Amino acid sequence: MLSLREVTVRYGDTVAVDHVSLDLPAGEVLAVLGPSGCGKSTLLRAVAGLEPLTSGRIEVDGVDLAGTPTHKRGFALMFQDGQLFGHLTVARNVAYALRLRRTPREQLAARVAELLSLVGLEGYADRLPGTLSGGEQQRVALARALAVEPRLLLLDEPLSALDATLRQRLAGELREILVAAGTTALLVTHDHEEAFALADRLAVMRNGRVVQSGPIDEVWRTPVDEETALFLGYARVLRGGAARLLLEAGGLPAADAVAVRRSALVVADDGPLAATVVSARVTPDQIRLVVGVDGVGEVDAVAPLDTHAAAGESVRLRVDVTRLAVLRIEHAL
Amino acid sequence: MRRIAGLLLAAAVPVAVLAVLFVLPVGGMLAQGFAPQGRLDPGGVLDVLARPRVRRVAWFTLWTAGAGTALAVLLGLPAAFVLHRLAVPGRHAIRAALLVPFVLPTVVVGVAFRQLLGEGGPLGFLGLEGTPVAILAGLVFFNVAVVVRAVGAAWEALDPRPGEAAAALGASPLQVLLTVTLPALRPAIVGAASSVFLFCATAFGIVLTLGGVRYATVETEIYLLTTTLFDLRAAAALSIVQLIVVVGLLAVSARLRFTPDPGRRSATAAPRAVRRSDWTALALTLLTLVALALPILTLVAGSFRVDGSWSVDNYVALGGAGDNGALLVPVTTALLTSLRTAVDATWMALAMGLAVSLIVTRRSHGPAERRVRSVLDGFFMLPLGVSAVTLGFGFLITLDQPPLDLRDSPLLVPMAQALVALPLVVRTLAPVLAGIDDRQRQAAASLGASPWRALLTVDLPAVWKPLLAASGFAFAASLGEFGATSFLARDEAPTVPVVIFRLIGHPGEMNYGMALAASVVLATATAVVMLLVERLRVPSVGAF
Predict the structure, then answer these.
(1) Staple partner for A319: which of A250, B243, B253, B527, CB 3.0–4.6 Å?
(2) B11 Cβ contact partners less than 8 Å away, ≥ 6 residues apart
């Protein structure tokens, strides 16, 4: 559906987006994940037609969008903080695009009601945006974006302005709404949890380049390098002897580097690794440990809440192989 | 209790000054209107207002102010967009230059328009000299800059993303402008328009020089009644009406005014490259700029013409007192008087303005203190409601007998000018002081700083640049002040605007040329001061 070919955006001497090529099939959600300043927002704006391309092509269904201004692209853009029109009521905000298309009055009212119930905001029609909470504003923004069934929904960190609990809940709802509506969406975010909550596909972006892309579970299981692994939420990367020891304990073939999640090492009486607890901290789900493992050094580990693991004690650890990723090391010396 | 006592102590000096220089003159004026010769006779005011000429004057004031406001807004909006949102080369210089018309002495602008529209002027063929259209053009000339600055600042601070969201939803650039941008700018536009209306309705120098006796507004009528007809009672009656209307307008405009928050400059969007769809706005802006430059250029050109050839004789003649005894002193002496007066007016306005700004922006502890502070706040804002002419008139009729006989004091004119400039100073300083988070002072106090030391280390570093800008602003305003000064300046010690007005009204070949030359000198002085102020980049300056 959407395809980017060698898209480049420059501001003077700085290259914000550097030869990015991506494909987004119809009906799927692609998340572009990257740290702030990596060029992901510029990429989104370029797709929206708000930034001119220096070179490259953006196509939808094989048609080049180069000469098409933003308002004729048939997309919808949803910002981090909603960017509702403060002078219009909720209903008017949602109806904005419908009015532009001169939708008949009865049809318009019905569609607005439908959308507000889709985002769970029945009865909010006559409120002004200023009186809504952050989460409610964000849902109105979503309803507004979905009103005319855009060919492509562009989401700029749609959840990151919200607090943690709300973010989790809204992420689930947003995903359901997107799937139910069969929307094709491009999402940019720096928060890997937001990406995992919403997307089917993932592209990792760094310094203007896409360093890895593919189905989300695939990218997750095989990060392309250390930086990507750390950005995806792996706690640390072990190399050399430490990596080999850990992989052996997990029954995996040897490799030079392995990225581990915090929960890759689990306290278990029959575990193959011996370790000493350096520090322990109780969380609602489990005990988080820092342990010294012979031949590996200090690493993170977890223990079930019912185990007794205080600092200074010796424990046995097993390796949870679903929680680590083997890295190919490029240019290793 | 101690805090309130301290507050009252700090406020005592400004309150006393305002009592003498404001309450007394205005009170005297009210007394003159309601109780002439000590007998209460409020009906007399109504008699004055029933006069046909007074009604005509009131109506003329209203419609010129309304039309002037509408035109200034219409011309100002495209220019605000082009100069504040587009990456037009030289936009900073143009923005700075745009401030010049607003601070140009009103008399100078009047002279410039006479030169432009008069017989033999570049637009003389239009036959507009001495018509209301000329007055209207003068009013618009002054106030376009107000709209450009106020709306431009808001436009610059406007988050572009709602507009982008609208565009992504299918709104064309025009639809984005109408449905998103203009509604978001409405407070700024309405605020600017109400300020402009106020400026137009109280315009004095421009109306007096272009309209003369025939087309008078309330302001000029007060002047004419006082100085040529000696009908103090009617003048007082008009002043009272003026006072009521202006205070009402101010109350409205204060609620609507948009002041850029000096603490939040980061939100401004970078100006974007010019697109083909911007050509209408660009063309309109160019037209506006040409229209603004034309009177000034004509004025400068005219000042170098004597008997149809180029010459600097007009400037040389400034060393003398003009033909046919037009003046009692040479223009150069008047220039010195002007500068001295402006220096005095500036320090007075600055001292008062700083004290007032500090007092009204401090955080109150407890409801009693807050009540005292808000009463003080309201009291200090009173001078805003009085036009310069009313003030001058009030000074004239009250400060002329012991123990307050200031008629011959060289400080009388600076005091009046300082009061006129006071609102400019307060409006520049107060937003900056209010923008300092009070927790900074609390942090300083917790680290052992005395209140005095906190003032020096927290407030002063933030406020010194605005203070400098405010002093420049006050200085320029004082240099060009004509409304109050025209009442108060003694014949043997006139300021330059007074001299210019006298020269254009006095027959004699050289006099008119000298008026042009003096206007150019005065305009250059104010423009230089204002351009220096603009270089300080204090956002609240000129947030009228």
Answers:
(1) A250
(2) B355, B359, B376
Q: pLDDT tens-digit profile of B196-213? A: 888 888 888 888 888 877
Chain mean pLDDT for chain B: 81
Closest residue in chain A to residue B170, using alpha carbons only: A71
DSSP, residue by residue, B97-164: HHHHHHHS-HHHHHHHHHHHHSTTSTTGGG--TTSHHHHHHHHHHHHHHHHHHHHHHHHHHS-SHHHH
**Measured between alpha carbons, how far is A161 from B321 in angstroms, rounded to an integer?**
71
Residues 179..238 of B with a Cβ closer than 8 Å to A: which?
A: 179-180, 183-184, 186
The closest alpha carbon to A28, from A148, A160, A152, A174, belongs to: A152
Strand A314-319, strand A265-267: pairing: antiparallel
Length of chain B (residues): 544
Confidence of residue B346 (pLDDT cuts 50, 70, 90): very high
Q: Which domains does chain A have, with CATH numbers?
A: 2-230 (3.40.50.300), 231-327 (2.40.50.140)
Which residues on neighbouring strands pair with residue A29, listed in sequence order? A185
A96 with B162: Cβ contact below 8 A: no
Pairing of strands A185-189, A201-206: unpaired
Local confidence band at B539 (pLDDT 50, 70, 90 cut-offs): low
pLDDT at residue number A55: 92
Q: How far apart are CA B418 and CA B475, in angstroms?
A: 9
pLDDT tens digit sequence for A268-300: 888 888 889 999 888 888 889 899 888 888 888
CB-based contact, B331 to chain A, within 8 Å: no
Decide: B192 and B166 in contact? Cβ < 8 Å. no
Most A CBs within 10 Å: which of B169, B172, B176, B186, as the mutation test of the A interface? B169
* DSSP 8-class letter at B519: H
Tokens of A332: 């290793």
Question: Considering only CA atoms, which of B239, B230, B518, B541 is closest in space to residue B388?
Answer: B239
For residues B543 and B153, the answer to whether their CB atoms sit within 8 Å is yes
Strand partners, A319: A265
Side by side, which strands form the sheet with A14-24?
A: A14-24, A2-11, A55-60, A63-64
Q: What pLDDT, on the 0 to 100 scale, is given for residue A57? A: 93
pLDDT of residue B499: 87
Do the Cβ atoms of B168 and A76 come within 8 Å?
yes
CATH number for the domain whose boundaries are B52-300: 1.10.3720.10
Q: Looking at the predicted structure, is the pLDDT value of residue A31 above 90? A: yes
Alpha-carbon distance of B544 to B542, in angstroms, equals: 5
Q: From A92, which residue of chain B is nearest by alpha-carbon distance? A: B179
Contact A74 B179 (CB under 8 A): no
| Strand duo A55-60 + A63-64: pairing | antiparallel
Residue A331: band (very low, low, confident or very high) from pLDDT cuts 50, 70, 90: very low
Split at pLDDT 50, 70, 90, the class of B268 is: low
Choose the most confident range, by mean pLDDT, from A210-219, B87-96, B366-375.
A210-219
DSSP string over B194-229 = HHHHHHHHT--HHHHHHHTTTS--HHHHHHHHHHTS
Q: Select from B159, B169, B183 the Cβ nearest to the Cβ of A97.
A: B169
Backbone Cα Rg of chain A: 24
The pLDDT value given to residue B100: 77
Say what angle helices B43-50 and B24-34 make with each other, to 10 degrees.
80
Cα–Cα distance for residue pair B464/B461, rounded to 1 Å: 6
Distance between CA atoms of residues A106 and A91, nearest Å: 13
Spatial distance between the Cα atoms of B174 and B171, rounded to a whole number of angstroms: 8
Chain A touched by B47 (CB under 8 Å):
no
